[in-house]
Amino acid sequence: MANQSLFDLKNYMSLKKGTVVYISGDEEFFVEEAVSYIKQQMLDEASRDFNFDLFYGRETEISKVHDVVETLPMMAQTRLVILRRAHDLRDQDWKVLLPAIEKPVPSTFFVMTGNKLDGRKSIIKQVTSHLASFHFAKPYDNEFPKWVQYICKKFGLTIENDAVQLLMQIVGPNLLEMQNEIQKLGQYIGERNDIRAGDVMTVASRIKLQSVFDLTKAIGQNDRARALMCLAQLLESGQNEVGIMSMIHRHIRLLRQTKMGEQQGFSGRQLSSFAGVPHFFLNEYSHQARLWSERKIERTYKVLCDTDRALKSSPVSSHIWLENFIMQTCH
Q: From CA 223, how far away is CA 218, in angstroms rounded?
């Protein structure tokens, strides 16, 4: 049973208890949300100290995990056991756990989190045939605003569309980091509960704000020297290469949307809404979009795909591929 939705897990849990679940994901935020939801559903404050156990991969003797999983709850109906970094387990560890997975104790909810398991191994095939697996994929760009709204709602906040778009540009496609920024914003606005674009500009890290926009602006303006310098600064500050590619990909998509919107006769707020660009950045995007022909956009998308594939599979240093992307794109 493999699902890619947090809501699928919630629906599953509403129907069934006393089972074994394996949770993995390309987006760590969903894994943490799933674990948090399970804890809320399975435990009450009174029995939490007696009926909740947390283990980490190879850091614990696996026979102890097995024994705890098979232990009946104390003064409650359910025991919750969570094993994080389960992908670190060795084959012999899985063999120790297998009896508790094949015949789960009805009163125990056993949750494992980690990377995707190697389904080619026979022991893993045995294990996965007896558990419910949930893998959460990274959301597409057009799904991110929905999740930003979801995070805000968790903290009793609302957020205007321009603020959502601005946050996405500053933070990039990382919902855990997005959640941290929203928490900061919630503290900043105090008794207000609505986040505005001006709040984002005030609270966002000046260094990050500057470096992210400098890089995408340089690429949008075909300024190769400036783009290479901005890339070096971002990498020096510890920014992840795949994250940088995601920001660039989003910027090119927004340039294409802006260009398409203008071709359809949109302007002002209407163009801003169509393109998904904060209104106060619209003039800059419009200016850059005029420098990009449809052919250049299509060619850049191909180079983006090639670079993304190389970043994830090539032994060559990641920064070489990013520099190569800029050399091919900015001319």
A: 5
Q: What is the rounded CA–CA span in Å between residue 9 and residue 16?
A: 11
Helix 241-263 vs helix 318-329: angle between axes, to the nearest 10 degrees?
Answer: 20
Nearest CA among 151, 18, 22 for reference residue 85: 22
Name the DSSP letter for residue 47. T
Q: Report if pTM > 0.85.
A: no
Q: 305-329 burial, b if ≥16 CB within 10 A, otherwise e?
A: eebbebbeeeeeebeebbbebbeeb
Place of tokens 């990641």: 318
Strand 79-84 and strand 108-113: the pairing is parallel
d(CA 274, CA 216) in angstroms, rounded, equals 20
Reduce the DSSP state of residue 195 to 3 states and report it: strand
CB 112 within 8 A of CB 20: yes
List of E strands, 87-147: 108-113, 132-136
- Report the share of the chain in percent with pLDDT over 90: 42
Q: Which residue would you say has higher pLDDT here, 2 or 137?
A: 137
* Segment 71-129, tens digit of pLDDT: 998 888 889 999 999 999 999 999 999 999 999 888 899 999 999 888 889 999 999 89
Backbone torsions φ then ψ of 61, nearest 5 degrees:
-65, 120
State residue 4's pLDDT score: 52
Cα 209 to Cα 149: distance, rounded to the nearest angstrom: 21
How many CA atoms are closer than 13 Å to the CA of 285, on its beta-carbon side? 27
Let me know how long the chain is.
331
Model pLDDT, residue 17:
54
Q: Are strands 194-195 and 158-159 parallel, antiparallel or unpaired?
A: parallel
Tokens found for residue 246: 């995601």
For residue 325, name the pLDDT band (cuts at 50, 70, 90): very high
Q: Name all domains of the chain by residue range, CATH numbers in brackets.
A: 2-136 (3.40.50.300), 144-329 (1.20.272.10)
Q: What is the pLDDT of residues 155-171, one digit of tens each?
A: 999 999 888 888 887 77
